[in-house]
Amino acid sequence: MPELPEVEVTRRRLESALVRKRFKQVVLRVEKLRFPVPVELTDILPGRTVRGINRRGKYLMFDCEGGWLLIHLGMTGFLRLLRGGSPPGKHDHIDFLFDDDTLLRFHDPRKFGIVTWVAGDPLQHPLLAAIGPEPLSGDFGGSCLFAASRGRNVAVKQLIMNSQVVAGVGNIYANEALFCARIRPNRAAGTLTLQECYVLAATICDVLEGSIREGIDCRVAEETVAYYPQIFKVYGRGGERCCVCGETLDEIRLGNRSTVYCRACQK
Question: pTM value?
Fold first, then answer.
């Protein structure tokens, strides 16, 4: 699943490629992804210009002159920049064609993505209104993480993956941030000290920013969303040796998600 860094890299690449371009045509090949795709997009978007592309959590928000195109990539979705006339594949569900023959194509094998239209303030839309502070903004830090953790018995990993606590921290980067902070993922969130919350908030920002830098430096032919090669310290490495102490990394399930940690390094 694309997580915040992949979505942010996608946003930056699309922004440089699409801002000030005008929609010419929208082609819908499915009626429904996670939710129904508004058929009126074929009438609403042509003639409108992309004025900017923002991100909220894992959602992309296209500012389209008086309204917003909202896209979530789901579990398997990504966006490609192509030329008009490129033949669609089996899972190429939506095409956005621009006046200069640029083609933005939404590909989603499992159809868990979201494509919808918002006429008003997108931040008040039900999909976005309850999302917590952005981890790469000044709104997120150790004090708000400490406040959110008080009296909570939920595992700390599940706490930081809660989008109402902090936006966009998915499974991959929760594993990595907790390892860097030396905090066990299955520890009760309410046991965290204020100092530990400051350290964890900082490591969340560090691992996300580091992944964004990797994605910007990497180029994948045609694919705008960056499923770029990354080297992880713990994610996907259960049963291997810890890169710090050499102990075997444990793998457990938390919230039905694979969770890898070092019992020697993380307390």
Answer: 0.92
